[in-house]
């Protein structure tokens, strides 16, 4: 079911410039919820605060901590919830006036579990296809194709109530794809999945775009998985745009190189020996904050190409084994707390540790509650 990229322009002034191709445009978009029952919400909640962003075709990650406004934005984009101020266009259509036509061309995978337990995946997805306007035969054919695509073909006649979390997420994805949309909005599709399930879901998301040309907006609070999956990342916090950039801009290389060496009989603490020798050779080292001998990583400021030669020659001169020498990269976490994250980039051995300070876990393994605020503590 190859589908050409949408290539639509939004009527909003900014997007009508020649060559500007977008699937989503928002301009000064705000959403305020009126008074809540909660004491803290007495003045109402501003879920989106003058959000202005353009999203091009491709796979785009929408990142923000819990309560950042991701789901609210998706509901506005689908025409399900009116904005308080500003405007938004999806595939060139105004969300305020074209909710129905937008939902005909856009698939939506909600965050919450919304599946009926007593029907099979086939029955449910056929029903959703029919609701989207497909005739009966086409709905059945598309359902079979889509369930095969998401890896549920063998299980398609079993009641959904007996499915695992991963299978249920796939059913939600299938119903979002069944009507051949040009854009899908996926709200936390990896929620509740184990690492293998996450990888499979992320692989499916990439294939949705690569094989079928469908653009994807996917939300997550896991920085690492969006770094791996998306072409472009939009970061929001408290309903405001923090940054919108190509993923490669977020993760460009730094001038820091991490070096790990082995210990030897002559140098039982190889790291300290190398640190001393490099300092004597005038190589700039970052303070790693660890006691000498407790860290196996040295973080080196690369002044120019000769720094690599100096490190190599010093390691060889000491008779140490070079375990690794790797260029450090910036991480999306730096958008939230630039100084802390940068310092941490120097400290951490594994890039997937990135979310610890931000409260936004970089990787599934880090999705445990954090001390003093947990996942909400951006
Ligand atoms: N119907 C509502 N009534 C009142 N407040 C709401 C409503 N929906 C959302 N909010 C509030 O708006 C803010 C943004 O919520 P939203 O669900 O969009 O965030 P989110 O980024 O999707 O978070 P999560 O990752 O937890 O799903 C939150 O403070 C939330 O409590």
TrEMBL record:
Bias (Basic and acidic residues): 365-378
Keyword Transport present in the record's keywords: the answer is yes
A single GO molecular-function term is: ATP binding
Q: The ABC transporter domain covers which part of the protein?
A: 24-263
Keywords of the record, alphabetical order, are: ATP-binding, Nucleotide-binding, Transport
Query: Which InterPro entries is this protein grouped with?
Result: AAA+_ATPase, ABC_transporter-like_ATP-bd, P-loop_NTPase
| SUPFAM superfamilies, per the entry | P-loop containing nucleoside triphosphate hydrolases
Report residue spans for region: Disordered. Answer: 339-378
PANTHER family per record? ABC TRANSPORTER, ATP-BINDING PROTEIN (PTHR43335:SF2)
Q: Which family does it belong to?
A: Belongs to the ABC transporter superfamily.
Q: What is this protein called?
A: ABC transporter ATP-binding protein
Source organism per entry reads Streptomyces meridianus
Identify the taxonomic lineage of the organism of origin.
Bacteria, Bacillati, Actinomycetota, Actinomycetes, Kitasatosporales
